[in-house]
Amino acid sequence: MAGSSLLVLLDDIAAVLDDVALMTKMAAKKTAGVLGDDLALNAQQVTGVRAEREIPVVWAVAKGSFRNKLVLVPAALAISALAPWLVTPLLMIGGAYLCFEGFEKLAHKYLHSAEEAAGHSETLQALADPQVDLVAFEKDKIKGAIRTDFILLSY
Predict the structure, then answer these.
(1) Of 121 and 92, more confident
(2) HSE (side-chain half, CA atoms, 13 Å) at 109
(3) Rounded CA gap, 129 and 134, in Å?
(4) How far apart, in whole angstroms, are the C-alpha atoms of residue 26 and residue 28?
(5) pLDDT digits (tens, 9 = 90+) for 100-126
(6) In terms of C-beta density within 10 A (0-12 exposed, 13-18 middle, 19 or more buried), how is residue 61 classed?
(7) Cβ of 150: how many Cβ atoms within 10 Å?
(8) What is the number of structural domains in the chain?
């Protein structure tokens, strides 16, 4: 009798440990998604920025990304705890926005006019000229990277 009670207790402990392992796996996946989205941003945000300005640009985006996480992670936890039915519509809205952004990029690439192409070549010439101060260009890239981080984090 005592032996069977011990086996039942060990079975219960094994079941609890299995549940904990499963929850840990899910939490690790979600955490990796929150933290891993910065990898794509960091490589893309310094494209077109002078070498001596790369670190300040990356630092500015990192600060903006941290502010995004400071707001969105507690908000996501609160929404999932207080209104779990709201998670699916919010994910659908985020997915629709990402589809829109992707379509806009493709449409811009294939449907741009000659004037826009000339404007792009002017930007490339300005990047090559060391006399041109590109602070506004960097600020636009930083804002875009922070906005992309916000969308990827919220999605």
Answers:
(1) 92
(2) 6
(3) 10
(4) 5
(5) 888 988 888 788 776 666 666 666 666
(6) buried
(7) 17
(8) 1
Q: From 61, 59, 90, select the one nearest 75 (Cα to Cα).
A: 90
Give the tokens for residue 121: 């070549």
Residues 34 and 114: their CA atoms lie apart, in Å, by: 40
Question: What's the confidence (pLDDT) of residue 150?
Answer: 76
H helical segments located in the chain: 2-45, 54-82, 87-111, 114-128, 135-154
Give, in order, the Cα–Cα distances in Å from 139 to each of 24, 33, 41: 39, 26, 15
Domain span at residue 136?
2-154
User: Which residue carries 């041109």 as its tokens?
Assistant: 132
**Distance in angstroms (rounded) separating the CA atoms of residues 67 and 80:** 20
38 within 8 A of 65, measured Cβ to Cβ:
yes
- Whether 154 contacts 47, CB under 8 Å: no
Contact 127, 53 (CB under 8 A): no
pLDDT at 114: 65
Environment class of 16 (CB within 10 Å of its CB; exposed 0-12, middle 13-18, buried 19+): exposed
**Whose structure tokens read 């690439």?**
109
